[in-house]
Amino acid sequence: MNYLKTHLETHFPNYLKLLVEHADRALGQCFQFSMPWDMESTWVSHTFEQAIDWDYQMADDPEWTFMLSRSGFVLHLAQAWVITQDSRYAEKAVWYIHDFLKQAPYSVEREKITWRSLDASMRLMHWIDAMLLLKQEDSEQFLAGVRMHTDYLATQDSEFLLFSNWGIIGNAGLFKGSLFLHDTKRALLAQQRVAQSLSYQILSDGMQWEQSPLYHAEVLSALLSMIQTAKRYGWPFDSYITDKAKDMAAFMLGSMKPNRHHFLQSDSDDTDIRDVLTRASFLLEDLSLAVGCFAELEPYSSFFAGKEAIESFARRTTQEPGFCSFAAMASGNIYLRTGWTEQDSCCHFRCGQIGGGHGHADLLHVDIVAHGHDVLVDSGRYTYCEKEERKILKQQASHNTIVVDGKDATVYESTWTYAKRALCANRMFSSKGNWNYAQANNLGYLMGAQHPVLIEREILQIDASLVLIHDTLITSSHHSFTWHFHFSDQGDITTETNAIHVSSPGIASTLYFEPGMEAVSNRTLYAPHYNDLTTKPSVQLQRHAEGSNSALFVLHSEPMDQPKSCTIVELPVHGARSNRLYSKQEARAWRIQKGSDEPIEVLLRYQETMELLCAGSLKTYGRACVHQGSRTEVFRF
After folding, report:
1. Where in the numbering of this chain does the Heparin-sulfate lyase N-terminal domain appear (predicted)?
2. Distance between CA 284 and CA 245 in Å, rounded?
3. Among 251, 457, 458, 580, which one is least packed by beta carbons within 10 Å?
């Protein structure tokens, strides 16, 4: 065990410090749920001076009670005992299990408090891991508690669970508990349920349908727990589940930010995903995940793997993925990427369905990371309580998207429901060397509208420093259009004519916008974690227009120590044969000059023509074209 302590001290000192802090709090019956994967985290502690009230609710949020009932602190205590051999940690871990079984045994009344199936499963998995580490798994009282949990979880079967992350996580606990009790009949039942749920829940691109990276990770972690348990007991595991776990891990890799966190999409937090990907690589024996992994075996697996496995993992051969940009078309998530280092750039384009109740009104939203730094961000989730902050953070205005006539195309109804959901159509992705393109339509302002508008958004990533966002607004009526842009909370913004300058630690960005737009800057809500609410700089750009029109936004970002100028000039577009000058409703073109680099010319065509179009040095028939030097690429015809 000294080897394990050295392993954690050397490679994961911050995690070890956090682990011991949480274990020490638990010794004094003090609870603060701020470990990296605590789903509904808190940074405010509560201490039970005497007896623990397992139904206690802090403030107005029942999620605190649910976090308490999941018993993650029991595993923290067991892990702290393994590291320190301090008997106080072991004794308190066992005491918590016995106290819960005595004070809060299963009852129908508790199914909405301490015995929701999700929480009961997570509690059971934490308890089993803890008692295995403490080598007290044969305790009669503990075995009775495991049976109580598996008896309950075996009864939990419904259409809701079939199509929810709850069902997979709940049955992962049933599987683990059943094999622990050598109950092969129930283990098989749990495995069958999970396989059936996966057939519905995991889309063909590997994402869990609810559209939340956080819950995607939780479902994947549940599958990995099942795989670990099957290996422990020599169970002939269903290869279908293993294959789905590989698909989910591959999606997680393709969707990660350069800093190895996931994006704040839907109900998610700003969380480092390397530990989950490392566990997946280890258990699935998948070297293709290496670029998203730690160099060493992550803490959780290290407690169970043993010295030989830890050393073997560190010696493994690594390789980069066989792709860079990633178009997850089934879920509608496109990731335009310049490379796999932490200093690379990545643009995430949301062009799919909302998913479940965890989804936000983020159709056509764009996240942008430039040279490893957040520039454009999502606003986060903050809470699940039915309050104004929840409503604000789920609405369109909290995302980098477009609102027409001050009305949302996806209409918020309650914390888990929408009165109306916008539809997406005509998604496209194209990659030409180091240039990437994505496109999609928002049909939400067509549905039942008296004066309909079709919104088409195109994204062009030219290099690590340059992203173009182009919106075409097709209508025959007069409308007001509001573009929302949310910048990193680390940034300071200044607005001038046709440009927004953003200064953040290590990165300087400028968002160029077209003449005739009114810019309003303010600070809006930002929640990088649950229960963690702050503000970030935001800008709203507004235009009133009659009939169809378009808008170009150019985001130019450079490291602070490598500044470059950027100028944008609109070019006339004319026919190669007719020499006719085309109107802005037919085609538009721009020349972008970045420092001393060769100029970049972009042409976007809105209507079909019967001749080649010319702009600057560019001659093309395509609908989306980029030209630089001797290179011309057509992304769309």
Report:
1. 39-273
2. 8
3. 580
For 549-558, give one letter per residue: b (16+ CB within 10 A) or e.
Answer: bbbbbbbbbb
Phi first, then psi: what are they for 315, rounded to 5°? -90, 0
Provide the percentage of residues in the chain whose pLDDT is more than 90: 96
Half-sphere exposure of 295 (CA within 13 A, CB side): 4
Point out which residues pair with 376 in neighbouring strands.
Answer: 368, 487
Domains of the chain in sequence order: 330-563 (2.70.98.70), 565-637 (no CATH)
Cα gap 389→147, rounded to integer Å: 41
* Cross-strand bridge partners of residue 537: 523
Under-70 pLDDT residues of the chain = 1
How far apart CA 206 and CA 489 sit, in angstroms, is 31
d(CA 474, CA 454): 5
* pLDDT at 1 (0 to 100): 60
Model confidence pLDDT, tens digit, residues 72-120? 999 999 999 999 999 999 999 999 999 999 999 999 999 999 999 999 9
Summarize pLDDT for 518-546 with one digit per residue, the tens.
999 999 999 999 999 999 999 999 999 99
Tokens of 173: 């606990």
14 Cβ contact list (under 8 Å, min separation 6): none
Q: Which residues contact 29 (CB under 8 A, 6 or more apart)?
A: 47, 48, 49, 52
CA 393 to chain centre: 15
Distance CA 93, CA 599 (A): 65
Q: Which of 357, 352, 353 lies closest to 418 in space, CA to CA?
A: 357
d(CA 263, CA 326): 14
Residue 545 buriedness (CB in 10 A; 0-12 / 13-18 / 19+):
middle
Query: How many helices (H) and strands (E) in the chain?
Result: 16, 29
SS3 labels along 207-255:
CECCCCHHHHHHHHHHHHHHHHHHHHHCCCCCHHHHHHHHHHHHHHHHC
Question: In a 10 Å sphere around its CB, with 0-12 CB exposed, 13-18 middle and 19+ buried, how is residue 562 labelled?
Answer: exposed
Name the burial class of residue 170, with classes exposed (0-12), middle (13-18) and buried (19+) by CB atoms within 10 angstroms of its CB: buried
Amino acid at 495: T
